Amino acid sequence: MNKFRHFWGIWILAIMLVAVAGCGKDTAGNNPTNTPAQQEQNTKTGKGEQENSSSDTQKTTYPLTVTDTAGAEFTFEAAPQRIVSLAPSETEGLFALGLDEQIVGVSDTDDYPEAVKDKPRMGGFQVNVEAVIAAKPDLVVVVGSLIDPATVQSLTDLGVKVYQTNPNTLDETMANIRAIGEITDRQKEAEVVVGQMEKERDLVLDAVKSLTSDQRKKVYIEFSPGWTVGKGEFMDELITLAGGENVASDLEGWNEINEENIIKANPDVILFGGNVLYEDNKTIGEMIKARGGWDQITAVKEDRVIGLDDNLLSRPGPRVTQGLIEIAKAIYPELIQQ
Q: Residue 9 belongs to what H/E stretch?
């Protein structure tokens, strides 16, 4: 199964049926010369001369030829000025790089940052090709596993540069942000964003590094009703980085749960996507607690069934390390002081 494909299909269906929790604060200003990333960089350098010198070495040289994760090669004669993003994770990355003014279209499921609400919509899994063409983009960014290859081909045949990403690990996510930063001549901003992500990652790694094997908590995660995640998936890596042991790590990818196996595994902590309400306006956490036999699980008995922000967990973008911190806080609240 392609990574994220099954989960996203379930999640999008859920979004059509229920309301999703409110968005966070806009982290990117409208002026690309005055972004939070640049402001933070100013603070870090302290001296204008140092910043100017750094800026000179972090400018993209055009023409620039790059290859995306699908093996397609593109040459950019200049920094793209009209960008369409067809994935929420990529949209968040573009905003974090200060590209608000360059974004001329986003997907129907984009909800962060606040400024994204004013952007033209280009469709969801069913991309509105006509709308994309009408936006006259010189770059379209997509997550390869979340888009129909026929749509990519249609846009490509019409002369559109469709750059496919597909980050499946934290390192790949940071590398992707750097790659987009190079394409868009936002390398300095990309380094600031990645630097913050590395800082957040290291905060967690430092907090849990002294845990012994018998101190590590067993963790079960249910992101969509009846489904959990095993090895080879993004959320499994986040649990591991946070010092937990995924009780479904014997599985590969996304799997329907075997309730008997989960009860037998007896997780210390249960995590679930907390943004969405399902049948009878219940959260996944409420559904879990109502299942027969689950009241014998340590996590349920000790009331450690914890809902987290779906978007922080599921989007491989600049906020995913905030999701990592939230996972670590849920598992080891005494170790994460933030």
A: helix 5-17
What angle do the packed helices 320-331 and 234-241 form, to 10 degrees?
A: 50
Instruction: Look at the block and give the residue holding tokens 């990519």.
Output: 152
**Per-residue pLDDT tens over the stretch 235-291:** 999 999 999 999 999 998 889 999 999 999 999 999 999 878 888 889 999 999 999
Q: Are 167 and 173 in contact (CB under 8 A)?
A: yes
**Model pTM?**
0.82
Cα–Cα distance, 314 to 17 (Å, whole number):
19
Give the separation between CA 33 and CA 170, rounded to whole angstroms: 28
- H helices, E strands: number in the chain: 14, 12
Other Cβ atoms within 10 Å of 26 Cβ, number: 16
Give the tokens for residue 15: 């979004």
Q: Mean pLDDT for the chain?
A: 86
**Would you give the end-to-end CA distance of the chain in angstroms?**
36
Structure tokens at 138: 């010189």
What residues are paired with 297 via a beta bridge? none
Secondary structure of residue 208 in the 3-state scheme: helix
> Is the distance from CB of 143 to CB of 107 less than 8 angstroms?
no
Distance CA 271, CA 83 (A): 35
